[in-house]
Design brief:
Number of helices: 6
Strand content: 15-25%
Order of helices and strands: EEHEHEHEHEHEH
Structural class: alpha/beta
Low-confidence stretches: 16-27, 30-38
Strand order of the largest sheet: 4-3-5-6-7
Length: 161
């Protein structure tokens, strides 16, 4: 809308171009009751060089994490994982300074085979998932990602959360 001498008003709407993916897990009644009584608080490492993305993930993952740590590059991620072998989940950005997420994951796997690592990348090329799995990631999610899809992915790996 525009009026001469007064200015213009612009409006727009955003739509997510990435359809929500459904992820399902089957649980029995006894497991569901136990999870409600004893929810697990996750120790999460967010490896992200973009400050805004890191802040958004920190806020969103607060529902799962009793302890959220942060690294800005692959070298820091390796150091934090080495000092904290009880970390439950790493959200590993792929495009990082100093050392990319693929290499950092390979090196983490040398001393910690059990930690869950989800690759996250803004590029989302068709072979990125295969590269991430080959590097040692347990799963992969493309940015911008639907937080509900990430939440469901986490709940499949950590049913007691």
């Amino acid at each position: 809308e525009s009026e001469v001498g007064k200015g213009s008003t612009f409006s727009f709407s955003l739509q997510n171009p990435f359809p929500r993916r459904e992820v399902k897990a089957i649980k029995d009644d006894k497991q569901v009751q136990t999870e409600k009584l004893n929810p697990k608080r996750l120790k999460i490492l967010i490896v992200e060089d973009d400050e805004i993305s890191e802040s958004l993930l920190t806020i969103q993952l607060g529902i799962f994490g009793g302890n959220i740590q942060k690294a800005r590059n692959g070298v820091e991620a390796i150091e934090i994982c080495r000092k904290n072998p009880d970390i439950d989940l790493v959200l590993m950005d792929i495009q990082l300074p100093l050392m990319n997420g693929y290499e950092a994951t390979r090196l983490i796997r040398e001393f910690n085979k059990d930690i869950l690592i989800f690759a996250q990348t803004a590029y989302g090329f068709s072979d990125d998932r295969e590269k991430a799995i080959k590097a040692g990631c347990n799963n992969y999610i493309a940015k911008p990602f639907d937080f509900l899809a990430l939440k469901e992915m986490i709940r499949i790996y950590f049913p007691s959360v």
